[in-house]
Amino acid sequence: MTLSSLFPSIKKKYGRRGIALMYHRIADLASDPWDLAVSPENFEAHLKVLKDHNVISINELADILTKKKKMPANAITITFDDGYRDNYLVAKPLLEKYNTPACFFMTTDSIGKQKEFWWDALERICLQSPNLPNKLVLEQPINISWDIGSSDNSNVLSPFDLYLKLCGIVRKMPSKKHPAFIKTLEVWANNPHERPENFAMDKKELLDMQSNKLFTIGAHTMTHPFLPYFSLQYQKKEILGSIKYLEELTGNPINFFAYPHGGHNQNTLEILPDLGITLGFTTHADHFIADVDKHAIPRFQVNNWDGETFAFHLNSWIKN
Ligand SMILES: [Zn+2]
Predict the structure, then answer these.
(1) Overall fold of domain 11-113+198-319
(2) In the chain, which residues fall in CATH 3.20.20.370?
(3) Which pTM value belongs to this model?
(4) What separation in Å is there between the alpha carbon of 8 and the centre of ligand 1?
């Protein structure tokens, strides 16, 4: 019996802590409802700040957590979710310039597709359509009759509220129904024009990425579902499908996984270890210590901050 096992809260407070950073996109975006993008300029400023910190690769972190090695002081690991092409075009050269390791969690059905992720398609439809109709009526796949207009009228949905409602609907929908639903909305809004800057990496780019030892590829499901909404069977198909795709493409085992939208339940936690996943990452904002649940490692989302603001947040995450 150790002091820290008698007093777990003391251990959490004073045990050596690690931090996982979560990025999504490195891009200048005019509209970014989920704060997913960091500008290239700000990202470079973050990398300069990180040069004064102990950044470790995800493989080093796995080694520490699985082999019960001593956690280095203030270890930081960097992750990217979704697999946007800007990770390859913009983040990769900057990470190389500063010799900084990172892991990229890929949504495999989007690799090489000339199609926006569903949340970007909905953003285009709801927030970028010049002539959004003032009524949306649908019978399939769900019954909808909504008035859309200015947000100062409480009886109508603002375009942003419409966007949030549609995101909620698509999150609960099996992915095979996504294309027809998005198509219906594109026709309704008369805005079918995919934006290539929002596409995911293609196979060649992904392989080029993994050819640099600084970078590790992880899985993020096939179609980015909110896993707890779905059966064990469906979850398994999504998770295993993404792992197999990446293992066949890269020729390497895939050991790391990030939960889309951070969502996981008991079924997910039972599936992952059987599929060879050693570390699973959530979106819960917290630091972790060496005896963290290896399949529920928290991460801090990094927003589009300048270097000084990033350093401020980083220091508060390390200390608090
Ligand atoms: Zn994601």
Answers:
(1) TIM Barrel (3.20.20)
(2) 11-113+198-319
(3) 0.93
(4) 32
